[in-house]
Amino acid sequence: MKQRIALITGATAGIGFETAKILSENHFNLIITGRRQDRLEKIQQELENENCQVKTLCFDVQQKKEVDQALASLTEDWKKVDILVNNAGLAAGLDPVNQANVDDWEAMIDTNIKGLLYMTREVSNWMIARQQGHILNISSIAGVQTYPNGSVYCATKHAVNAISKAMRIELAPHNIKVGTISPGAIETEFSLVRFKGDQEQAAKVYEGFTPLSARDIAESIYFVLSRPAHVNIDDLLIMPTAQASARDIFRKD
Ligand code: NDP
Ligand code: 8X3
């Protein structure tokens, strides 16, 4: 394959989908993943063109067996992954630590931390074999700050940052770039997932100010991915203009 290959987890919605779109516009071949097969097929049809082949892998990043089987199903050509965007992730619930649902904690830890690690363990070996690659982990303002009722979500994103910093040191000798993207509030399916499908509660998160769009973040991701070979952007912290910290969003009535 002549074109570079990008593997994006969680490409069925939000940031992952917009990142896939921008990379298809820029002639990357894509491996897109998620748990919703119908969406993966629809996106494959939408993005595939003469300059972009799209491969779909449907699996749950929380399940190591599923991750390993999905990655093992790729042919050697498709294992020449140049870019891994570890994007699949979620917040589940917004509750104080004494009342939160333990299943929500498990889902966030298993997806945001363990899923990212399962993907990275395998794909980084493919990159090490070729002595080239770029791993971009989607973190959050919640990776550098905390907010009430978000203890475990914030902890998972703090973990993403710690893992990324250590990976940067481990992988630099192998000519592999590592970085994080740390956004504030982006209007995606994120809040709908956090509030278990409650549309009213989800909509309230974005009331009275202009949040980031998934396209805003995808454009920044493309900027990071398209720097020259000798430039590594360690982190980009990107907030809506109206958001000054994880807790301070200035809303108009
Ligand atoms: P969306 O809910 O719109 O998209 C999340 C994506 O992750 C979907 O494609 C979903 O696919 C996938 N995903 C979730 N869980 C799993 C799983 N267990 N296995 C495989 N895929 C999974 O949210 P965003 O686009 O906003 O979120 C993307 C990333 O950005 C997350 O890591 C999030 O923490 C982070 N982020 C989001 C912010 C925001 O305000 N929206 C701000 C800062 C960071 P499927 O359901 O098909 O499995
Ligand atoms: C998502 C943004 O502020 O809800 O990472 O944590 S926030």
Overview of this protein structure:
Belongs to the short-chain dehydrogenases/reductases (SDR) family. GO terms for molecular function: oxidoreductase activity, acting on the CH-OH group of donors, NAD or NADP as acceptor. Keywords: Oxidoreductase. This is Short-chain dehydrogenase. It is a single chain. The chain is an alpha/beta fold and 253 residues long. It has one domain: NAD(P)-binding Rossmann-like Domain (Rossmann fold, 3-Layer(aba) Sandwich), CATH 3.40.50.720. The protein has a 7-stranded parallel beta sheet with strand order 3-2-1-4-5-6-7, with helices on both faces. Helix 1 crosses helix 8, helix 3 packs parallel to helix 4 and helix 4 runs parallel beside helix 5. The longest helix is centred in the middle third of the chain and has 29 residues. The model has no long low-confidence stretch (mean pLDDT 98). The structure holds NADPH dihydro-nicotinamide-adenine-dinucleotide phosphate and 2-hydroxyethylsulfonic acid.
Write the layout of secondary structure elements.
Layout: E1 5-8, H1 14-25, E2 29-34, H2 37-47, E3 54-58, H3 64-72, E4 83-86, H4 102-130, E5 133-138, H5 151-171, E6 176-183, H6 190-194, H7 199-204, H8 214-225, E7 235-238
Parallel strand pairs: 1-2, 1-4, 2-3, 4-5, 5-6, 6-7
Helix pairs in contact: 1-8, 3-4, 4-5
Bound molecules: NADPH dihydro-nicotinamide-adenine-dinucleotide phosphate and 2-hydroxyethylsulfonic acid (8X3).
NADPH dihydro-nicotinamide-adenine-dinucleotide phosphate (NDP) binds next to helix 1, helix 4 and helix 6.
